[in-house]
Amino acid sequence: WTSGCWSDAVRSMQELARLAETARSTVLDGVIQRRDVPDSATYFGSGRARNLRDLARELGADTVIVDGEMSPGQLQRLEQVTGVKVVDRTWLILDIFAQHARSREGKAQVDLAQLEYLLPRLRGWGESMSRLGGGIGTRGPGETKIETDRRRIRTRISRLRRQIAAMSVAREVSRRNRRGSALPSVAIVGYTNAGKSSLLNRLTSAEVLVHDELFATLDPTVRRCRTTGGREFTLTDTVGFVSHLPHQLVEAFRSTMEEVAQADLLVLVVDGSTPEANRQIEAVRDVLREVQADSVPEIVVINKGDIADPDTVHEIRSRNPEALVISAQTGAGIDSLLGDIAEHLPVPAEEVDVVVALDRGDLVARLHEEGEVKGVDYSPSGIHVIGLANKELARKLRDAQVNSENG
Predict the structure, then answer these.
(1) pLDDT of residue 39
(2) Which of 139, 194, 197, 365 is the most exposed place for a label (fewest CB within 10 A)?
(3) Is 28 helix (H, G, I), strand (E, B) or coil?
């Protein structure tokens, strides 16, 4: 291995430990093996597998967590050698999502992802999970013991897909209503624990749950926000991304990810205090490409500027020169961010030059919020307003014009 490969492996193991802690586990030790490709039988090879068995016995560990996705055969054979439960990175992340799902849709999406992962891995797993009781891999559908019956799992997968499809229709109606209000949409995206929910709170006073742990936010939160110029837009907080986000989760959460793909603007939040910032940005963009959201305009925001490392900030800006430094905690840089958002919001297309009745000031107020006012003049005959509006508001303004013969 090169030194770069080794440092990447160490960083990935550190993140795996953080994931395990988020799953309410106690990390006892970590082992890295230099190997070009995983062993086809036990992932590590027979000698290292026996070493893991001895280490688990010495430490009193009941679970081995592997930093990668293992095949069903590898999982079963490594469990046979070590005598303890084996969990790979994918199942660990699915388990964390099962902890944090709150809404009916979120729980259904996580159940679906877990069952689709579990289905080809039933042989051996059902026995080991029953034998070893609680802990990682036993939350969510694992506790229902349906993993021993493939037919029942497939039936439940079909039912969950139908439920999610029905709920996604309701989500689309809600999304269409927001689009109908002509408010531009902005989605906050970023690596898990980058401070997205803290930023949403700072911008909207939404008081969204904020915890210093991975994947604290799972169900998307939508709030209204205003630029410093008074223009309104919707702001959506989304689930945190992570390197090698399981494909099952991306698929299960596709309807939720549509909030991102259909946004007018993305605010990509990165933790300025971690040396992994650029790698995390690329991990986020990998997921954005997978959900066809990579063409949405993007603002890179370096959060935690109050504790950010200057070298990290410089490294991020070397690849993203327009990146803003902010602190959701202290409020530093928030006005600059709102200004940047205002510049990137789509401009309404229709020009209006109308005089509306004095009692239709509500429409003028909407033009301030949803469009662009180039000039406004109040007179006894009405309100003369010039600006840019979306199609629906432009029609209402023209319908409310004062007749020239009455003007």
Answers:
(1) 93
(2) 365
(3) coil
Complete edge-to-edge strand list for the sheet that includes strand 382-389: 350-356, 382-389, 372-379
Looking at the DSSP bridge assignments, the partners of residue 389 are 350
Distance, in Å, from the CA atom of 135 to the CA atom of 147, rounded to the nearest integer, reads 16
Rounded alpha-carbon distances, angstroms, from residue 273 to 21, 237, 320: 20, 21, 16
CA angle at 241 for the pair 236 and 247, rounded to the nearest 5°: 115
**pLDDT tens digits along 353-385:** 999 999 999 999 888 877 888 899 999 989 999
| pTM (two decimals) | 0.72
Alpha helix (H) ranges present in 291-390? 310-319, 334-344, 361-370
* Three-state SS at 171: helix
CA–CA separation, 257 vs 141, rounded Å?
23
Average pLDDT over residues 86-96: 89
Whole-number CA gyration radius for the chain: 26
**CB-neighbour burial class of residue 310 (10 A; exposed 0-12, middle 13-18, buried 19+):** exposed
Q: Cα(356)–Cα(381) distance, rounded to whole angstroms? A: 9
* Other beta carbons within 10 Å of 265: 20
E strand or H helix at 368: helix 361-370
List the one residue out of 338, 315, 318 whose CA is nearest residue 326.
Answer: 338
Task: Round to the nearest angstrom and report the end-to-end CA distance of the chain.
Answer: 82
10 Å CB burial of residue 42 (0-12, 13-18, 19+) is: buried
Determine the 3-state secondary structure of 174 from DSSP. helix
Q: Which two tokens stand for residue 314?
A: 């410089």
Evaluated on CA atoms 58, 39, 242, 281, the torsion sign reads positive
Length of the chain: 407
Q: Which of 174, 160, 168 is CA-nearest to residue 107? A: 160
DSSP for 242-262, please give it: -TT--HHHHHHTHHHHHHHHT
What is the spatial distance between Cα 88 and Cα 64, in angstroms, rounded to a whole number? 8
